[in-house]
Amino acid sequence: MATIEDFISAIPKAELHVHVEGTLEPELKFALAERNNLELPYTTAEEMRTAYDFDDLPSFLSQYYEGMSVLLSEEDFYELAMAYFSRVAGQNVVYVEMFFDPQAHTSRGIELGTVINGIHRARVDAQERYGIRVQLIMCFLRDMSAESAAETLEQAKPYRDWLIGVGLDSDEKGNPPVKFREVFSDARAQGYRLTMHCDVDQEDSVTHIWQCLNEIGVDRIDHGVNALEDEKLREEIKQRDLGLTVCPISNSYVTDGTKSEAIKAMLKEGMCVTVNSDDPAYFPGYMTENLIRVQHEAELGVDDVTQLVRNAFEASWLNDTDRAEYLDQIESFVAAG
Ligand SMILES: [Zn+2]
Known about the structure:
Elements: H1 4-10, E1 13-19, H2 26-35, H3 45-51, H4 57-67, H5 74-89, E2 93-100, H6 102-106, H7 112-130, E3 133-141, H8 146-155, E4 163-169, H9 181-189, E5 193-198, H10 205-216, E6 220-223, H11 231-239, E7 243-246, H12 248-254, H13 260-269, E8 272-275, H14 287-298, H15 302-315, H16 320-336
Parallel strand pairs: 1-2, 2-3, 3-4, 4-5, 5-6, 6-7, 7-8
Helix pairs in contact: 2-3, 5-7, 8-9, 13-14, 15-16
Bound molecules: zinc ion (ZN).
Zinc ion (ZN) binds near residues 17 and 278.
């Protein structure tokens, strides 16, 4: 393998933290706006990219939700998801656990079935066309009420078999994990796996991560970088073998830098830290670019990069047989040098 960048690009990878709505590139936004007879407040995709201006979570979220207005039909959701799969197929991403935000659409009058059917159809085609295996995670918006989350869980019942887990995202300030204790407990009873965002450098980040462990009983944590600040918390996360889905380029937009050194520190601690893209159309960079960025900034070696990639399969919600198969693929890839 010529360079470490080539190695990163070619190694079979998993992505565990990507929001399908966050993969909406400006070019597709224009195409969908045209098909749906909608006006966008920009004349070109480039102008739209330049206008993206966020330096924290709330300022990002306002543009993220505005962008979704072009998503109306099942076909729109299908094309959105397919565009992401075709892109990461070129980066040798072989397994994805993908988030979607039903309430961001049902609150605009779009049926839940329209959203789920479109993404599900894309997932089936991605497996056939690119050999990418995909599982779906339904996220509740934490700045909406717990009742709304419970209604969404109820509405999703007919699609239960298509969903592997539930998550929690959007604006964390004033919306702690415990607000959703009951709905997550109901989801657990229905057999869903559980994860929650603990965004980086939020007010009460460490308290929120403890809540995820002790009050919710999550199977994984999205972001969770601030766990490093509390030794007991670090130990507990290690003890429970909880995966952390960190998103370096995303971090560089909404907080102070990529947190690459924190990722390295977590690796050295033996924590199951993974690297992901989050919302790659808004925080430019898919899986390969995120891994390269961390490798450069934290000066990681091939073994560290391999461990990050391996961790993603370890932290995934694959069954043990399938997980072992993917881990074998990585070992063969590394052995082939
Ligand atoms: Zn996220």
